[in-house]
């Protein structure tokens, strides 16, 4: 989770609050001494009572200081500390990031922006990316934004589908995921839609799979994994080695027992 770096003026505000609190506390203690002549009472105390009174006063002052400064900090943090970001703010923050092991951008699902035509191969690229995230540590896939951070939108994708809206898009996306990866992995995906620059964007939050996920591409089973900022296809020997190292033996044995 990204940590907030407080600005200098925010820190200075906290210091000013502490200064005002300490001055106010000092003034209150001075006034109490003047009003109730606490110092004069010391003369009637024995030495032991005087020491006990001093210790009690120091303890009381420590408690007041601790409670007061804690309350000041909580009020300050409530005003300047981390605040939960809205979903659109989280999306904007995500888009500012570069493609990495856990982030990928796709201009569209099936509409070739450069050729200005429908291209079914683009769907396979999306499926490969999802599969790669499942077999690695999970990640976020943003559809409708290019890797150069240009918001392309999904409107052309919508128009290429029988049901020309986000519901039709989601239905089609879920269907191709079922066809290539199986229905069981849908529980590991969270699909959301947003509007940015008056254009529709789809995001997929993908969790790490508890077992290897093989992808059905043109009738062949392939194994994809996220490596750096790209998705790689592994050979059979590479996949076997990766599975042994990525999933613990007890995980695989438990899953095999369920099957």
What would you say this structure looks like, in words?
By secondary structure, this protein is α+β, with helices and mostly antiparallel strands. The protein folds into 2 domains: 8-80, no CATH class; 87-258, Schlafen, AAA domain (Methyltransferase, Cobalt-precorrin-4 Transmethylase, Domain 2, 2-Layer Sandwich), CATH 3.30.950.30. Helix content is 51%, strand content 18%. It is built from 9 helices and 9 strands. The chain has a 4-stranded mixed sheet. Strands 7-8-9 form a 3-stranded antiparallel sheet. Strands 2-3 form a two-stranded antiparallel sheet. Strand 7 (214-217) and strand 8 form a beta hairpin. The radius of gyration is 31 Å and the shape is elongated. The two termini are 36 Å apart. The mean pLDDT is 86.
Binned, the helix content reads 40-55%
| Order of H and E elements | HHHHEEEHEHHEEEEEHH
Strands, total number? 9
The CATH architecture name of the largest domain reads: 2-Layer Sandwich
Poorly predicted ranges (pLDDT <50, ≥5 residues)? Answer: none
Structural class: alpha+beta
Indicate the CATH class of the largest domain. Alpha Beta
Percentage beta strand: 15-25%
Oligomer: single chain
* Estimated radius of gyration: 31 Å
Report the mean per-residue pLDDT as an integer: 86
Q: Describe the global form.
A: elongated
Number of domains: 2
Euclidean distance between termini CA atoms:
36 Å
Q: How is the topology of this model organized?
A:
Blueprint: H1 8-36, H2 38-41, H3 47-80, H4 87-95, E1 103-106, E2 111-112, E3 117-118, H5 121-134, E4 139-143, H6 155-159, H7 166-181, E5 189-196, E6 199-206, E7 214-217, E8 220-227, E9 230-234, H8 236-246, H9 249-258
Parallel strand pairs: 1-4
Antiparallel strand pairs: 2-3, 4-6, 5-6, 7-8, 8-9
Helix pairs in contact: 1-3
